[in-house]
Amino acid sequence: MDEKTQQHAPVTGYVPGGFDMFHQGHLNILRAARERCDRLVVGVTSDEALIRMKGRAPVIPLKERCDLVSSLRFVDAVVVDLDQDKRLAWRLQPFDVLFKGDDWKGTPKGAQLEAEMAEVGARVVYLPYTPSTSSTKLRRFIAPEDFADEDSARKSDHLAEGDGQ
């Protein structure tokens, strides 16, 4: 029997994310994830969790972000993701594979994610990150005042190092 005719257990994939200001990078990771699983569940991070993780509220409210993601024909289900610990997401909606951008690969947070997923019997698959656009870049463009403190700190660091002119 060849591989195409063999029976296999359906694979449920999970993609967590804020999906704020939905853009090409979001679309790319969701499409790539769907190609690698039979059922795609997307965890849209709650407003409260985004504030805890990123220190600021999303531009687009949770319900609208969920509506946008659920309108994609290749997304089978959308759930609200409540915490950075994806074991909680797994307990609420079990999945086989968690898909994440490869900007996490080889980082301490990626290693932690891999260890936590191994605890529940899921694996992490890294997919190409789209560096040309991100919600942070979009937000920096449309609301630069949100980044004034970061920019000031960066300039101070450069001046202290002798880089600034």
TrEMBL record:
Domain Cytidyltransferase-like: from-to ranges: 15-140
One term of GO molecular function: nucleotidyltransferase activity
* Cross-referenced SUPFAM superfamilies: Nucleotidylyl transferase
Protein transport: is it a keyword of this entry?
Answer: no
Q: What keywords appear on the UniProt entry?
A: Nucleotidyltransferase, Transferase
Alphabetized InterPro entries for the sequence: Archaeal_FAD_synthase, Cyt_trans-like, Rossmann-like_a/b/a_fold
Q: Which Pfam families match?
A: CTP_transf_like (PF01467)
User: What is the superkingdom listed in this entry's lineage?
Assistant: Bacteria
The name on file for this protein is Adenylyltransferase/cytidyltransferase family protein
What is the protein's species of origin?
Answer: Actinomyces bouchesdurhonensis
